[in-house]
Amino acid sequence: MESGKRPSFVHLVIALESVVLLAFLLMLTPLGSRLTLNENVESAAEKETEKQEESGGDADGEKSSEEKDYIKWVDFDIPAEVLKKAFRCDIDTYLADVHLNWIEILAYLGACYGGDFSRYTESDLNAVTERLRAGEKMADIAAEMEYYPYYLEAYTAVLGGMVGEYEVEIPGSEAPDFALPKDEKGNPIPTNDNVWVTKYGLKAFSPIAKNYPYSDYDDFGASRDYGFQRVHLGHDLMGQVGTPVIAVESGRVEAIGWNRYGGWRLGIRSLDGRRYYYYAHLRKNYPYHKSLKEGSIVQAGDVIGYLGRTGYSDTENTNNLEDPHLHFGIQLIFDESQKDSDHEIWIDCYELIRFLSINRAKTVKDESTKEYYRVYQMKDPAIPGGAAAQQIPETANASP
């Protein structure tokens, strides 16, 4: 029996040696080299992925900006009337069983139109809001829309801090009974003083104070040639020198001072870090509210500066613009690498300014200092610990 098995064993050894020889020869060919290289690359990639997952970033604990997945560009062309309709849906249902979210509605429409709101019809907005009121969830309605998540993130970056709860002063003559002071029997007492109320609604403001005229048109992308040929990445509001300029949203002063293009300018970063508001060409000699410095916290509706015509000069405090106006811009920031880089995202603000014109801050002038202040104070819960009220000194002589 042993003599009968021995030939089979020999044949098996020869076969195994042949397989090994063939594999060796294969590795010497271009195909074999590519297979080995691919295995090594995949193995290294798997190890790097594991390392990043463990550290939350790259080998040093952070992903490079090139590797991060974030939005690189946003076209924002939602007409003011559509913004108003979606906003009205939101605030009208705030206390209802189904509260409609205006940004979700706009993101749905953006996904329907590929961001092209020239295709907008009111029936599309009505149809989706009816489905939501009937109990459907937007996540389910938009589940098959490939670009809905993009538009939701992009429009949230633009509008995310503009609607919510806040406290604000209103004239006593306009106050509901529950907000008025009470007598010993609990009856409301009429008053001419301002009273505080809690509201849900638009807590962002037009950048131009109430009762001050201005004119504008959609000038985003227009040609500019001072310094070098470029396009206009903001929105100009033409007005009178000295017009109070208003903080559109609560935030932190990130830049203050002279810029050869913008003249005296302010840069205010929203508290969520997504929006950088740029106010430029402020007034010569007295561009800013005296309370401001780098790092200051401002509340939406505060007076932050005064319209002028400074800029287009390397020499500070120079009026080189023919027409006084406020240059207003919004930069979106999805990653810090986009700030002050070649990858900045500036949006067209024209329609947004038209929408914000429904909320303009009333101001009062201190005749002794010529400084302006907001008339009605606000408490924005978005500000950690609150912000100092921008209130005219009681000893000042004020004029409306």
What does this structure look like?
This protein starts with a helix and ends with a strand. Helix content is 28%, strand content 20%. It has eight helices and 17 strands. The strands form five sheets. Strands 5, 7, 8, 9, 10, 12 and 13 form a seven-stranded antiparallel β-sheet that branches. The protein has a three-stranded antiparallel β-sheet with strand order 2-1-16. Among the domains are: 80-159, no CATH class; 223-399, Distorted Sandwich (Glucose Permease (Domain IIA)), CATH 2.70.70. Strand 8 and strand 9 (275-280) form a beta hairpin.
Keywords for this structure?
single chain; 400 residues; alpha+beta; Glucose Permease (Domain IIA); three-stranded antiparallel beta sheet; 8 helices; disordered N terminus
Overview in brief:
The chain is an alpha+beta fold and 400 residues long. Helices cover 28% and strands 20% of the residues.
CATH topology group of the domain at 223-399: Glucose Permease (Domain IIA)
Q: Low-confidence parts, pLDDT < 50 over ≥5 residues?
A: 1-10, 24-63
Class from secondary-structure proportions: alpha+beta
CATH architecture label name of the domain at 223-399: Distorted Sandwich
- Helicity range of the residues? 25-40%
SSE order, one letter for each helix or strand: HHHHHHHEEEEEEEEEEEEEHEEEE
What about the largest sheet? 7 strands, antiparallel
CATH superfamily of the domain at 223-399: Glucose Permease (Domain IIA)
